[in-house]
Amino acid sequence: MAANQSASEPFAIQAENLVRRFGETEALSRVSLNIRRGEFFSLLGPSGCGKTTLLRIIAGLDSPVEGSLKICGNDAASIPAHKRPVNTVFQSYALFPHLSVRDNVAFGLRMKRIPQAQIAERVDQTMALVQISPFADRRPAQLSGGQKQRVALARAIVNEPEVLLLDEPLGALDLKLRKELQVELSQLQRRLGITFILVTHDQEEALVMSDRIAVMNAGKIEQLDEVEKLYERPRTRFVARFLGSCNLIEATVAQIPANDFAVADAPLGELHFDAAKSSRNVGIGEKITLAIRPEKIGLLHSDAPRSRNHFPAKVEEVIYSGAETQYRLRAKELPLSACLLNASVGSHGFEIGQSALVHLPPESLIVLDD
Amino acid sequence: MHTVTRNTQHAGKPRRGFAPMGELLRSLITSGPSVIWLTVLLLVPLLAVAVISFMSRGDYGETQLPFTLDNYKRLLGFGLLGFDALYPIILARSLALGIGTALACVAAGLPLAFFIARLPARFKNLALTLVVIPFWTNLLIRTYAWQILLAPEGWLARVVHAIGIGASGEALYPGTGAVAIGMICDYLPFLVLPLYASVEKLDWSLAEAAMDLGANGAKVFRHAILPQIMPGLIAGMILVFLPATGQFVIPDLLGGAKTVMLGNAIQQQFGQSRDWPFGSAIAVVALALVMFSLWIYARKSSGKGGPQLL
Fold first, then answer.
1. B215: nearest CB among A92, A98, A111
2. Residue ranges in A90-168 assigned as alpha helix (H)
3. Which of A99, A266, A361, B191 has its CA 20 to 30 A from that of A168?
4. How far apart are CA A27 and CA A19, in angstroms?
5. In chain B, whose CA is at the least distance from the CA of A106?
6. Are A90 and B208 a contacting pair at CB < 8 A?
7. Which of B212, B219, B222, B301 should one mutate to test binding to chain A, selecting the residue with the greatest count of A CBs within 10 A?
8. Domains of chain A (ranges plus CATH)?
9. Is the dihedral of CA A19, A21, A24, A26 positive or negative?
């Protein structure tokens, strides 16, 4: 549709040093980001992190006190909300209660004074696309949550915007429906080629749907990366903890040999890690935080042969959750959590109170920036 | 179930037969007083007025038979002396006063309701109290107060002349302007209060959605705000329209007593002229006109799923 019309401007959104204050608190403090045309981009963060404020600024429903914003290369400051090539799927759906589903979907096109026949055609097409044609003549009050969500989506995409903003669109739906719609939304995005910007606090939702994610905290972007990189190589404690769970180990850098893993002194003992994969340079004597995902930790029986990065630990808790089992461990006062896939029948043979051996693979240890 | 029925029969009181009786009694006790009140003080007098309107006036002002349509003919302008538009004009004038006051109150009340609704919580109650305060003063006193304020040499008149809105020496009172001021001030609270209740619970996200979908300011109001406040707006307009149509004190005191309104006409017939049948006819027609306009509104709004007041 309209989204890929000109390749001259590679970015749909260019934000520079956006600042927005509400009284004393800074909802956005110097936020800069570029969002590419045609990508599925997510703003992820806890409530109050500024993600919805940023979305509203892009929509034109709020304005920054400082900074600049460009939409498809044009300065947005001079474009009022109703003239921006941007449409929003609101968290509360905000469907017009006095209009039928069909009239809700047609609303945007009517505002633009598009000929009646064309409106009817596009509305019918869009309603068929998101599968709401059977309810065309109902009022919003007669629809279920999932149906309302689809109507809100249709009402936005029928306008063929350059950028579609989705503010926690699946927040009010139950888990099963949410998962279905996650897949449907990403398929729809690929099909339409419109830039999607999703605001969510649900890390799994962001991971499943997005090409790139900006993790936000306290009005700032903590990290902006491709989905896989964000999970595998978090840069800050906040990102490591917010996206999935993570074990954090405080250590001091001891040696950095040229042809081998670097060594750090940790409460556990000598810990080898891959300094080359780190996002920054570390120096000897520096205090660092190492992060490791629970599923990267190996768990062995205490009589297994020990090599480097193997440490004795005690099993404190076993949490069986079907597909996987989580283990709460303690290695020399350091609490660790490990997660093992239940790939074969039966348990892994670790019980509460038992001793075990944990293996922290050096290439899975990530040096955090803070 | 079976045993339960038998047990109650044993107790000697068949509950099934008794329960509706109890309900009837209860509803009689609760609604009885108001039914009696309405019957004695509203329905019976109304019927009496309707019946009297078809009777004739005796030589000494007494109401007497035979039944006749003369009163209505006279009201429509076909009197003893040929066609005279006096009474149709009075009717139209009163309806115009009611409609005009309602529209003027909308123009003044809409911004006011939005202003109050957007005030910080602690000022809202204060503002609403200020809106209601005029109710605490007698209508006549308020109207006389306007006479003094708007008097030809009053300070308000001087200010108006100083700004250059009105020609120098031209009085604000008595006149149409003074009547308009008096009517709006008197009926504004009737419109503002129900309207405020609607504005207060407005869903502003609909306005944002409309804006997002390409609606400019006026269209946002028309498509996202107005449908939401319509029930309050209509209720307010009816609350203003009904009493304003029958109003005659304000037009008399601020308009210079030159124009006759429905109210004056009826009062005249029952008072000085001692023509109860004709006064009744005016009252019946006025009532019919008001009911008719409400009925038209109800018909129009029920078709569109709008508020149903009648």
1. A111
2. 101-111, 116-129, 145-157
3. A99
4. 8
5. B213
6. yes
7. B212
8. 2-240 (3.40.50.300), 245-367 (2.40.50.140)
9. negative
Question: In the numeric block, which tokens belong to residue A231?
Answer: 């999970």
Overall pTM > 0.80: no
Radius of gyration of chain A (CA): 25
Cβ pair A196, A38 in contact under 8 A: no
Q: What gap in Å lies between CA A194 and CA A226, rounded to an integer?
A: 18
- Using alpha carbons, select from A62, A44, A72, A70 the residue that is nearest to residue A195: A72
- Quote helix, strand, coil % in chain A, to nearest 5: 30, 35, 35
Burial of A159 from C-beta contacts in 10 A (0-12 / 13-18 / 19+): buried
Domain(s) labelled CATH 1.10.3720.10 in chain B stretch across 87-303
Size of interface A-B (CB pairs under 8 A): 59
Structural tokens at position B76 = 């429509």
Structure ipTM over 0.85, yes or no: no
Distance from CA of B232 to the nearest CA of A (A): 15
Question: Do residue B224 and residue A86 have CB atoms under 8 angstroms apart?
Answer: no
Residues from chain A contacting residue B201 (CB–CB below 8 Å): none
**pLDDT tens track for A151-168:** 999 999 999 999 999 999
Of B205, B215, B305, the CB nearest to A94: B205
pLDDT digits (tens, 9 = 90+) for A329-351: 999 889 999 999 888 766 678 88
Query: Does A88 lie at the interface with B, CB-CB under 8 angstroms?
Result: yes
User: Closest Cα partner for A108 from B283, B44, B220, B239?
Assistant: B220
Check if A161 contacts B (Cβ < 8 Å). Answer: no
Q: How far is B292 from chain A (nearest CA, A)?
A: 27
pLDDT, average across residues A226-232: 92
Domain B87-303 has CATH 1.10.3720.10: yes
Please tell me which of the candidates A92, A97, A112 has its beta carbon nearest to residue B214. Answer: A112
Instruction: Return the closest-CA partner of residue B148 out of B178, B169, B177, B189.
Output: B178
Could you report the average pLDDT of every consecutive run of 10 residues in chain B (310 residues)? 43 52 81 88 91 83 79 79 78 87 93 91 89 85 86 75 64 75 89 92 92 91 91 88 86 79 85 86 87 79 49
Amino acid A267: pLDDT: 87
- Cα separation of A91 and A295, whole Å? 34
Burial of A349 (0-12, 13-18, 19+ CB in 10 A): exposed
Rounded to whole angstroms, the maximal C-alpha distance in chain B is 94
Q: Are A12 and A194 in contact (CB under 8 A)?
A: no
Cis amide leading into B189 (omega within 30): no
